[in-house]
Sequence to fold (131 residues):
Amino acid sequence: MGLRKKTKVNAQFNMSSLTDIIFLLLIFFMLTSSLVVPNALNLKLPGKRKSSTELKAPPANVTIRRDGTYWISGQNVKLIRIEKAVRELGKKGRPVSMTITPDPNVPNQYVVAVMDIAFRYNVETILIDPS
Fold:
């Protein structure tokens, strides 16, 4: 008496549950990525301009030395003094410009601190790489 099994092994994979999981993950990552706000500076990159801008006053030259000290026009100042100087120049009604000259070995945080001050007071900045 030959008994045969009527059940066969099905080699196909059901994708319906997998597509549901992928769809839910897609929705999750889309929602969480819109909630994340990057903490970055809005930098103006160089490009072409239709009109040229003339500086009415020479730009304030901020030098950052290797030990983290800030110098404005040859005077050693603290970071708060840079912010006060930029604020006072902005109150005079003329556009403020600034050049930042960091030492090649200065950590980025010192340069970003000056750039952040320039960004808050709408200063046209020029970053000069001395190397």
Observations:
- The first strand starts at residue 60 and ends at 64.
